[in-house]
Amino acid sequence: MGPAEEGRQKAGGNVANFRSSAASSLGKRGAALHVSSVIVILSGAARVSRPPCRSVVEAMKRYSALAIAREAARYHRGWERAWASPEPKGDYEIVIVGAGGHGLATAYYLGRNFGITDVAVLEKGWLGGGNTGRNTTIIRSNYLQDPSAAIYEKARALYETMSRDLNFNVMFSPRGVMMLAQTEHERRGYLRTVHANALQGVKTEFITPERVKELVPIIRIEGPRYPVLGALWQPRGGTARHDAVAWGYARACSAMGMHIIQNCEVTGIVSEGGRVSGVETVRGRIGCRKLAIVVAGHSGRLAEMAGFRLPIESVALQALVSEPVRPVLDVVVMANTVHGYISQSDKGELVIGGGTDGFNNYTQRGSFHHVEETVRALVETFPIISRLRMMRQWGGIVDMTGDRSPIISKTPLEGCFINCGWGTGGFKAIPGSGWAMAELVARGTPGPLAAPFGLERFREGRFIDESVAAGVAH
Ligand SMILES: Cc1cc2nc3c(=O)[nH]c(=O)nc-3n(C[C@H](O)[C@H](O)[C@H](O)COP(=O)(O)OP(=O)(O)OC[C@H]3O[C@@H](n4cnc5c(N)ncnc54)[C@H](O)[C@@H]3O)c2cc1C
């Protein structure tokens, strides 16, 4: 049994088995709740001081086919706001900075797995307005190193049941993710990854160019510069609706009584005797016993406020979408040699991801030449793109570590924890990261998923090197 499989059984708990038993009774809310509670108990989360929060169960009752019918009959006047907008209290047990997917998932699993609900999530803008709402939503777990495969596979497994767990449709679509091998070097690298994944319990295979063409009829496999030599294929990888992931977690957290406070920028971190005691915000000082910093591209700035430095660089990463067209592509394709990746959204737009800027910056736009470069590269492999108009382009600030692996760690400031460094590929990790971070914050020590990702690895030279394995790490 590989670490990912072991992690899944220990921490996520035979999700697939319970999924099939739940599938037979889908539609019966009670069954979904039963499945969720069994997962929590199996996970070991039951071994905590406080019982898992039950009010999340109440939240899950609200959206159903019956509710839609009832609201249709009364002109949809009865829907409540999905989450509350409370005034901040003076003091919380735990403050989380950043209402992106990772911050919200951390809050959710603090309540769900540890029964801790005296939690505030502080967001300087609107929730999900950072990278979580700007990414191209690729979900996969075909990483090379064991600790990465374990946490990304845990996350992927949680995505499988997320809509039911949160009673919120996150549109998880396991349509399959394909990483094209377009050089001999890349082909050998992916073969190695397939072997590593087999040991880790992650289901992937290396497929032939003919199979690639079968799955993606619009591809030109002979290619003018780089013929397709095969692909690394993960059939249960895919996409999800990014906003919905943030909204689903926010709604469940709010239902558990947690405070999600938007337009509340943290401007300083307060400590007493080497221990965190609160934060300064644009809405005044807020006290806390524990602090979790989960701010992606702004991590360096928050670390500076807390008095330590991070081995992280912030750069802009961008994406673009075409005009909507009829369905032409029902898998996700990543072409790392020419550097571009593509999928088709439910609206019909081709969602295209490009590269990072070659210099550190905090812009949420990205440089124009990347758009040109990305489209030019993809046209070689997907000639139909040349006929499409591009409609929108945007950027996010991603937080890159030297080994391209995340940091889930204690910090030199007692009671202060940090989760960052997901760089260009953290959307897929949101549930696994939240699960691991909640365990770290609640217990004060990392569990098996988070332990390899501590800050000390940079001092000890114990890197989890995904930079070579993941040429484009989305
Ligand atoms: C263009 C693009 C494409 C991508 N594609 C993929 C992909 O296909 N697959 C994938 O897995 N990943 C992808 N990613 C990466 C992924 O989006 C991120 O790794 C992930 O969303 C990070 O989530 P987060 O919650 O850590 O950060 P964010 O969503 O950025 O949330 C952090 C929040 O902290 C807030 N904040 C910052 N400073 C403060 C402060 N001082 N006070 C209060 N709040 C503060 C910010 O406003 C922000 O809302 C992509 C990223 C981009 C930009």
Describe the structure.
- It is a single chain.
- The chain has helices spanning 3-12, 15-23, 29-42, 55-60, 65-73, 101-114, 146-166, 184-200, 209-215, 242-255, 299-306, 368-381, 430-443, 456-460, and strands at 91-97, 119-122, 138-139, 177-181, 205-207, 230-234, 238-239, 259-261, 266-272, 275-281, 284-293, 312-322, 332-335, 340-344, 350-356, 390-401, 407-410, 416-420.
- The longest helix is centred in the N-terminal third of the chain and has 21 residues, at 146-166.
- The strands form three sheets. Strands 1, 2, 8, 9, 10, 11, 17 and 18 form an eight-stranded mixed beta sheet that branches. Strands 5-6-4-13-14-15-12-16 form an eight-stranded mixed beta sheet.
- By secondary structure, the protein is of the alpha/beta class.
- It has two domains: 3-168 and 241-311 and 405-460, FAD/NAD(P)-binding domain (3-Layer(bba) Sandwich), CATH 3.50.50.60; 177-238 and 313-401, D-Amino Acid Oxidase, subunit A, domain 2 (D-Amino Acid Oxidase, Chain A, domain 2, 2-Layer Sandwich), CATH 3.30.9.
- It binds flavin-adenine dinucleotide (FAD).
- Flavin-adenine dinucleotide is lined by residues 97-103, 122-125, 129-132, 134-138, 265-266, 294-296, 298, 302, 317-319, 353, 396, 398, 422, 424-428, 474.
